[in-house]
């Protein structure tokens, strides 16, 4: 089992027991804008997803980890996705589920742990993130972890009938 530990959180692999937690997140319409979700997911589909979550990142091009606090409570999810082994790059996404757990450093430390893992263990050269222009909390987390704002994608996402801009952030590993 993959365990990445920090002072505030640790990251672990998805387990079958995470069914209700993942189901709640995937079906929370407040998160659909950042996840590009448009329809609810059934527990059946999420159970199937969890059953396949152990598959190799190079096979499914994605790794989803649970963010846990010191009390072993799941507080969020962090993803590596759209892995491009040829170009040694991948996208990163992070979500702290409950607003009461935000602004406590959980996201910041989780991102730091995952970036180190991606550069050290996966040998990636570059990580990137797409962040809604008005998502100030995420912008701070990515910028605090060395991600550089490299471009604005205008009218990139359509959400509730309104087009929204999205920032593209990159972090390039300059250690070879």
TrEMBL record:
It is an enzyme of class 2 (transferase). Keywords: Acyltransferase, Transferase. It comes from the Bacteria. Gene3D superfamilies: 3.40.630.30. It holds the Pfam family Acetyltransf_3. GO terms for molecular function: acyltransferase activity. Transmembrane segments: none annotated. Its EC number is 2.3.-.-. This is GNAT family N-acetyltransferase. It comes from Christiangramia antarctica. The lineage of its organism: Bacteria, Pseudomonadati, Bacteroidota, Flavobacteriia, Flavobacteriales.
